[in-house]
Fold this protein.
Amino acid sequence: MPEPLDAVTPAVAGTPTVPAEVIAPPTVGVEEEFILVDRDSRAAVYRAPSVVHAALDRLGPSHVTPEVSQAQVETVSAVCRTAAELEAEILRLRRGTAAAAAESDCLLIPSGTAILGRTGPPPVVDKPRYRAFIDRFGPLLHDQGVNACHVHVGVADREEAVRAVNHLRGWMPLLLAITGNSPYSAGADTGYASWRSMVWGRWPSAGPPPYLRDTAHHEQLVGQLVATEAAMDPGMVYWHVRPSPHLPTIEVRVADVQPEPGTTAAYALLVRALVSCAVEAVRAGERAPEIPDALLRAACWQAARYGTAGTLPATHTRDCTPTAVVRLIEELWKRVESHLSRYGDDRPVSDWLSEVQRHGSGSVRQRRVAESHGGSLQDVVDALAVTPV
């Protein structure tokens, strides 16, 4: 596979354009999932109930929730408008949850998979929904304690949201490639940039979304998935990008949890700009390329396997030409630059994408830390641990 680009392209690294007027952007919110690890062993530990209880006392109701595994917690941001609001909220939630974790003698780790130990489940968090998962899916649930970053962007019109997904689905392999942050699992190097996406992809309702003709087609497909029992309800249709089943948003679910709050914020701002481009294309009557589902799934595997060091078919175009990831980043930047500039978000996104082009995603960082510490995965955990308040 090609090596990562050793020089940043001018398209991304150049000074962002200062817009004549910054306009109000769509709303954005972020959900982040984390692993809890024992402070001494650095292995995954099942202390979510006590950590969530303590975190809610610190952060307020609904901002911290349990996940399916008792070794996981999830933070849920407030609805934000500006980059400053978003990064401050992400930092607040991370620090407050890390402080709650410290009360239970554990660390909060932003990695897509458990670097040491097993997250499970089993055991699952004691909720009726998760107990029902066991009854229906059996061993498929095992080791699904993996950690993603979900970004919600406000789109009030449901029909526009459904049609915008068609313009977004082709970008999912690239978004996965630049956000891979799970090379290790249970003490071993998987060889992947995003092992999380491989584990999560076992769900029968997970993966790239199909091409959606309209809202009626979307509702029909979701209903059929529920009827087959591949999904328990619409919320379990785990497509990489989807109209949210319960909010007036488009939800992009393809990324691993990111190592730093600034990275998470920059990624979310990028997603917001990309969603805005898609909605604009829908309003202009542009038809999205109907990329075959099988090709999108294969491209997502390539992205998970090789990350920023690989090539991907350019699935945002009709010809799908194989292209180096670092070059696809240039195309992505050209696509979103005007919207980022319009919202005043171009600098943080430009800085982050330039860093990805130079040094790769979080998976590269994890391996670099391990290499510099004689292969010690405890040191990788320590490098990722969120600092409490």
Q: What stands out?
A: The first helix runs from residue 10 to 13. Confidence is low (pLDDT under 50) at residues 1-11, 14-20. The chain is about 45% helix and 15% strand. Residues 220 and 262 are 39 Å apart (CA to CA).
